[in-house]
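Ticket 4471: requesting a sanity check on a complex prediction with magnesium ion. Repro inputs:
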Amino acid sequence: MKGIVTKKIADSFCVKVSNDTFICKPRGNLKAKGIYVGDHVEISKVDDLYVVDKVDQRHNLLIRPPLANLEQIIIVISPVPKPDFYILDKLILFAYCYDIEPIIVINKQDISDEINEYVIKTYSTFVKVVNVSAKTKNGLEQLKTVLKGKLSAFAGQSAVGKSALVNALFGDKAKEGELSKKVNRGKNTTRHCEIFYDDDIMVADTAGFTSLDETLLPIAYYELPYYYRDYNVYKDKCKYTSCVHVAESVNECKVKEMVKAGVLDRARYDRYAKMYNLLKDKWERTHG
Ligand SMILES: Nc1nc2c(ncn2[C@@H]2O[C@H](COP(=O)(O)OP(=O)(O)O)[C@@H](O)[C@H]2O)c(=O)[nH]1
Ligand SMILES: [Mg+2]
Ligand SMILES: [Zn+2]
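Returned structure tokens:
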């Protein structure tokens, strides 16, 4: 049978096969250490036990939190606390670095829709944007449609409503998970990660994405422009093929020209340049 590892307990694994869960041990030649939550595995029954026979090739593997085959990062923002768009940009970049699709969820629509216009104008040409309220449950069905059939994780600043959304999606199941996490924490120092699921929705419960340090980004500074999909549509019109859209002049750089013309958002561009310079400084410190 084929399944997905949803939880690791010591050297045993919970493996979801459709809507059943099997507790499995790795087969003799496999090491428990080499199997991650999110892994797609082949399992079979040996005597009265289930064993993991094989781990499929991974699409990606995150180390902190340890999680395999993440497909979507649901970046939650809200009118309160005020969005830190630098964190949002970093999360989008992080997602693209690992070939994960970022989705922006604007929560707390019951309080205000004041940030919607900016977010839609700046991001919706390349990222899907969903408006919800965890409180009134408005938009929850649309969010469920986005989550269907893919392994997702919630990310974003503290207090934007990530836990409230997970609770709205999973109800008591999520609360049980929170509880087991607290119980485990005392004796187990490795960061816990577990996949909640309900029908076709799978969400990795992880606290790992809240504060993303630039040093965690697995790229060199000169690769940064490649990950800006909104800039890539113009890069063929820059004078130099290696244009990074920072040091070049407005006459040479189509991205800069589009910022000047107001087609591309100035503030996102400034955040881009800040990120570029930070990555460059780091690169020069370690390679210079
Ligand atoms: N008005 C309103 N409050 C919300 C909504 N979602 C979450 N909250 C509140 O925002 C606070 C932070 O929510 P929480 O889920 O703990 O945020 P997290 O830190 O991202 O997990 C709590 O007081 C929630 O009750 C919402 O859609 N509307
Ligand atoms: Mg929370
Ligand atoms: Zn350019």
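Notes from triage: The chain has three domains: 2-55, 61-205, 219-287. Leaving this open until the requester confirms.
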